[in-house]
Amino acid sequence: MALRDKFLDEASNQQSVLVCASTHHMLEANQRLKEGRIKTELVPTPQGIGSACTTAIRFSREQEHKVEQLLNQATGIEWEDIYPIEKKDRREDWQDLLELDLRDKFKKTLSRVAQDEVLSKSEVITLLEAESDDELEALFESANRMRQEMVSDMVDIRAAIEFSNYCTKNCNYCGLRRDNDVKRYRMTEDEILEGVAEINELGIKTVILQSGEDPWYTTDKIVSIIERIKEEFGMNITLSLGERSYEEYKIFREAGANNYLLKIEAANRCLFDQINPDDDYEIRRQHTKWLKELGYITGSGGMIGLPNQTIENLAQDILFQKKYGIHMIGVGPFLPADGTPYQDYSAGDFLLSLKVVAVMRLVCQNVFIPSTTALASLTEDGQTEGLKAGANVIMLIMTPPALQENYQIYSNKNMVDLDFAIQSILEADRKIPPYINLDQLKRIDRSEINAENTTG
Length: 456
Known about the structure:
By secondary structure, the chain is an alpha/beta fold. It has 2 domains: 3-84, Alpha-Beta Plaits (2-Layer Sandwich), CATH 3.30.70.790; 156-453, Alpha-Beta Barrel (TIM Barrel). It is built from 18 helices and 11 strands. It has a 7-stranded parallel beta sheet. It has a 4-stranded antiparallel beta sheet with strand order 2-3-1-4. α9 (219-233) links the parallel β6 (206-211) and β7. The longest helix is centred in the N-terminal third of the chain and has 19 residues, at 133-151. It is globular, with a radius of gyration of 22 Å. One of its GO terms (molecular function) is metal ion binding.
């Protein structure tokens, strides 16, 4: 074993996590520990301790006594417990997979995953390079078992309202880039709330408010929208507005926003610079840290098949999500958009996209991974196959139909609706969430959905 791998394994054996009573108390505790010179990291709460929606504070196990002292000396911080992070050994349960005809290097890497070992970049690349039928079977089935262990069989369904396609940025891949000839629109607050009402009627608990980077929607305007959604519907809110200031993130969080999606798109600095000519890699990383520090359930992700992207770059993307403790990781194929500098490039490879989903599940484990709209746009059964590869979320497009064709980050987007999502879930042999109002289905006969397909 390489010296670096040995160090990482020893470090992972010596870690503990602190779980607090709420996000507020978690942030207060994290600040107190930092003041006490404890090195901390905010991570998705490990499986068996809490859900993928919560954040824990990870620190070196040798600091446990000092952490307890600092917490006991502080006032007003409510914490549940400190848990050692114990490794699991799944080799016996995965024996059928490990006995397949695998390359020695691949088998050794998969065995290390089964033992909860920390993978190096070269080992992540080994998994991504799965090619034979047996290796692909082992990869996808191990990811599916990890998904079932970590987040169960239920597929979470969320819905997005793309409320503005104005954007100040000029990203080379994006159909909304400021120099593109696009019919621009902005939805009013009332129009947005009408869309939220439709989502609420479907039974969905989380609305995603997505736009280009559009400063016309000031802090006060976004706060007003958040507060009305909370007051009228009590729904969880994910914001996807691009880069805002730290103070704005803080204000949105205090107003009631629960989640924030800010994709890194490419964790390799050179590739990031190529696709985002007017963005800064370090600023994007800093904003990711801010969002976690402010207590958001944080989303990130990237694209597969970008021009000049390598397998090593994809391994970097996966390890970035692990390092920053991202809760929601959206990865899908690059799809070209008309009118952009990348319009003539080929779409990302479907099989490689599924492999990235699978390896992301194996490496990051207790997180939300969407079977993305991009997968559904690349091939009709894309979302079904994404779910089979380890994903556990589907996002509906609930932008008003008259505006949908003008929100084309990439061309020929599949406007995933409730029926399409439910059909994908059924075909993947997964469970429909209990909160969905199946009376809202338009093309699927509800009588065909039996109790085995639902949870609750």
